[in-house]
Amino acid sequence: xxxxxxxxxxxxAMKKSGLQKVLRIIGILFLxxxxxxCLLLLLGxxxxxxxxxxxxxxxxxxxxxxxxxxxxxxxxxPKVTSQYEGDQAFTQVGxxxxxxxxxxxxxCTLPFAKLRVSKEALVVTISVSGLTFSLARSSIRxxxxxxxxxxxxxxxxxxxxxxxxxxxxxxxxxxxxTQGLRRFGYEISDT
Length: 191
Known about the structure:
Elements lengths: L9 H35 L2 H18 L3 H9 L5 E4 L3 E11 L5 E13 L3 E6 L4 E6 L3 E8 L4 E7 L7 E5 L3 H10 L8
Antiparallel strand pairs: 1-2, 2-3, 2-8, 3-4, 4-5, 6-7, 7-8
């Protein structure tokens, strides 16, 4: 009789165990600080502050336990961030920033935005707000990489009235996005 079992890819298990270790370390630090303050506040009669630090102590214990709910949420994130749809399109999951300028804009992080590249258009979809920015190829003036503090994004300079003048897609994989854009005939500058 054959037994079937689900085998997770090794890299996913390694990422998960690494995240568990980090959460446990944070939990131990929280527990050390919060537990000490709880004891001092209880002895000193500060019940309101004691309650706050008691809650922090419970959070620390949850983190030490491995934070199973947090890990389930992380597992729900898309595992595939870039893919080709045959010869029709290329899509990448990432983040986005949009508004009047870099500083006067809204932002969402990975995995709440998606860029779809085709020969006809670039389409940026923001799942948390339901916004979609469709930019016909003829309206795109320039694509360029823009560096932020910890990441790089693809700034899409365009001439579409009614859309935010500033649209930036936070790439989850710069090399894959560059190849996908070039495959469909788009050029990107580094400045």
